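User: I'm putting together notes for a lab meeting next week and I want to include a structural view of one of the chains we've been expressing. I don't have a solved structure, so I'd like a prediction I can at least talk through. The sequence is below, exactly as it appears in our construct file.
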Amino acid sequence: MTGPLILVVDDEEQIRKLLEITLHTSDFSVKAAATAKEAIIMAKTNNPDLILLDIGLPDESGQEVLKKLRQWYTKPIIILSVQSDEENIIKALDNGANDYLVKPFRTGELLARIRSSIRGIIPQSLNTHVFNHELEIDYNLRAVKKNKEIVKLTATEYDLLVLFAKNEGRVLTHQYLLREVWGPGYVNQSQYLRVFIAQLRKKIETEPNQPEYILTESRVGYRFVAKDNF
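Assistant: Thanks for the context. Below is the predicted structure for the 230-residue chain, given as structure tokens.
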């Protein structure tokens, strides 16, 4: 296989085999680890393009592995876990996970999330980003166009959109968005975020009540995706 390399970290052999077959069928290269220790070693030696990480590992919590990886690993990490409670999901996202899928998951959705996460890495040298030949962001001019027409955004709306665009496919928690756009003192001011998300949707979405770019992740945050990602 010559496609992007994915490191699968899961202590269940059946899950590892299922993921290996699924990923190979979709032209991904695959490495697998069953423990936290193996995961760290294999991530360092193979530098995978994306890591699928289980939370419930036998030798160390996946949350701790995630924090260790994020000390140096900058590529996407997707959590796969049976833990579906809001606290664990938010903790993983705040620790640096790009996405979180609850087991059992649909393989089609997993593959879509993987493709979205890999596509969402924007080179720092990129000056303009066009989504679906429709929405265009010019980082040099701080300009946004929808169907070639200028979209008038406030400075805060622009900063929020750019933060989304540069994290395309990644779930961003309410607290993360508030901290990055408004500052640490606003992490509990969720009303700011709701108002600006609504305003931004009115300006960039064709149907603001049925958003195609800025999707809501219930009780967790928001995800920015190109419409043809799924």
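A couple of points you could mention at the meeting. The first strand starts at residue 5 and ends at 9. The chain has a mean pLDDT of 87.

User: Perfect, that's what I needed.
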